[in-house]
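Human: If only I could read backbone structure tokens as easily as an amino acid sequence. Underneath my words sits a plain record pairing an amino acid chain with its backbone structure tokens. Take your time, and here it is.
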Amino acid sequence: MGPAGRCLLCGLLLVALGGMGMAGEDPQPDPKAPCANWMGGAPGYPGHNGLPGRDGKDGRDGEKGEKGEQGEKGAKGDSGQIGSQGAEGPRGFPGTPGIMGMKGEKGEGAFIHRSAFSVGLTGRVPHPNVPILFSKVFYNEQQHYDVSTGKFRCSVPGMYYFAYHLTVYLSDAKISLYKQDRAVLFTYDQFQPNNVDQASGSVLLHLNAGEEVWLQVYGEGANNGVYADNINDSTFMGFLLYPDLDVH
């Protein structure tokens, strides 16, 4: 209680007491006058806390702040594991056809560089030291092998491959492959009684136009076991591998 309240309380007490006094006594003091002789009482105990007040209303949103500066770039993280392959997607639609290209120029000499033959025997070779006549023709489209002479005549200069596989029966056989009257390959087969042997050979040769290649048995007549019948073939073949660069 403040001083003004205490003085008011003191005045009320005096008025009450004054009503009980004698006439002629001093008039009652003014309750509004300060009480100089009032002694304060002992302080009271603090009051209990009041109940919590209700929450106030939400305040208004503040103004948008300025954009902050960009932070430093962080360290690169570890690479993740490779995921499993996904399912195959559906097939796409066909694309539009492209523009047709220009027609190419016709090649020169596409068929000029062909040269090949494959021939065989029709019976025993009767004479040694002469070209063997292979009269059974398997392939001779360019007619570069002459069945009347038994010789192949070069029409396209270049590198050629020649091979022969001959049946040997009843006697030994000595065979030579000739190029231009010179033997370049020799094969000898010694006949074994009650047996049918094979004599074979192959070679690469460069030929110029007009050069000839053939096979023949060399030696005496006893060395003439080259043989052929309806179940045993003796064959001779050759073909052009590639022509010379200046051939057109």
The chain is about 5% helix and 30% strand. The first strand starts at residue 116 and ends at 120. Residues 19-25 have pLDDT under 50 and may be disordered. Strands lie at 116-120, 136-139, 145-146, 151-153, 158-179, 182-189, 197-207, 212-217, 224-227, 235-243.
